[in-house]
Specification:
Layout (H helix, E strand, L loop, with lengths): L1 H59 L2 H4 L3 E2 L4 E2 L2 H32 L2 H16 L2 H28 L14 H25 L3 H9 L4 H30 L2 H6 L17 H8 L6 H33 L8
Antiparallel strand pairs: 1-2
Length: 324
């Protein structure tokens, strides 16, 4: 009897071990399948856009990317003004949003008193929840008139020697679109940056204080330097949102397919033209051109993110090493 009991006792761990390995393998393949779903979705989107854009691809070829004419009546289509408007408005948004967002995240993490921190976080999250169409309405009826009356004349008076701030403005323009997009991506960059700064080990700060560093030096050397790779990733997330923003930009950018040097002039973005003109596309080549614009937008997003990852590995990556 004792021999049988010992044999059963020895068999149980082997049984449990086999069940454990089975669970590990099932969990591994389940999570792998979930990860592959993302890849499959992106591939299906790209395939569908390619199928829809096939007539335009055959007719225009690479000229579609460098063409500046958009004439649905005569069947002439070029994407360059929309690529220009998308990149310029996104660049303006990043120039405005990144310093504000990172400074806000630093204040919330390192400097804000506890009684003020949570209300500020709540308002940031509330701003992130505002629908883009609401921001667009606010932009066209409140922000654009204020910019036309106050900010644009001040910029023209102080920086008018630059081509970027020359010419007459009529309200909706590239600069207004960039400001609206900046307002929309500030909560994203701020929230992600805040979580990254909170994840910096406390030993980093304590070591800097022990060496006699001031609070500013601790923040700059021990916190921001340690977290800069993650902060760069937060900026890329904001850039992804900026590139694809549609409704708010459509309402304040002016919707004019042109390439101009002045930020006071109207422009157009890839997402805006698709949203504005898809219901008006009555010919096959017109619809196909809009599909190709969607394919171009997807390509621009991928190229920008790949370029950002290369910058991350080249300039930021070597400076960030895991702490021993």
């Amino acid at each position: 009897m004792e021999t049988v009991a010992i044999t059963k006792a020895r068999a149980r761990p082997e049984k449990f071990s086999a069940q454990s390995h089975l669970g590990d393998h099932a969990f591994k393949w389940l999570t792998l399948g979930m990860a592959l779903i993302i890849f499959v979705l992106v591939a299906l989107i790209g395939l569908e856009l390619t199928q829809g854009a096939r007539p335009a691809l055959h007719k225009f070829g690479w000229q579609f990317l460098i063409g500046s004419d958009w004439d649905p009546v005569n069947g002439v289509f070029g994407a360059l003004p929309f690529i220009f408007g998308t990149l310029v408005s996104s660049a303006i948004a990043l120039i405005i949003a990144v310093p504000i967002s990172i400074a806000t995240a630093v204040y919330l993490t390192e400097l804000a008193p506890s009684w003020l921190r949570q209300p500020l976080v709540m308002f940031i999250e509330l701003l992130a929840a505002v629908p883009s169409v609401i921001l667009g309405l606010w932009g066209i009826f409140v922000m654009v008139p204020w910019l036309h009356s106050h900010l644009f004349p001040a910029l023209r008076a102080t920086l008018g020697f630059l081509p970027l701030f020359q010419g007459t403005d009529y309200g909706p323009c590239l600069l207004a679109a960039g400001i609206v997009v900046a307002i929309m991506i500030i909560p994203i960059i701020t929230s992600v940056s805040r979580e990254i700064l909170r994840s910096v080990p406390g030993l980093q700060r304590e070591a800097a204080y022990a060496l006699g560093a001031t609070r500013w030096e601790v923040t700059r050397i021990a916190v921001l330097s340690y977290a800069k790779k993650g902060l760069f990733g937060a900026v890329i997330l904001g850039l992804g949102r900026a590139l694809g923003e549609t409704m708010a930009v459509t309402m304040v950018i002016g919707n004019t397919p042109q390439i101009v040097a002045s930020l006071f002039k109207p422009g157009y973005t890839l997402a805006s033209v698709i949203a504005n003109e898809f219901n008006e596309a009555v010919t096959n080549i017109y619809t196909s051109a809009l599909f190709e614009l969607g394919l171009v937008l997807l390509g621009v997003t991928v190229v920008v993110n790949v370029f950002a990852q290369l910058l991350l590995k080249t300039f930021v990556g070597p400076a960030v090493k895991p702490q021993q």
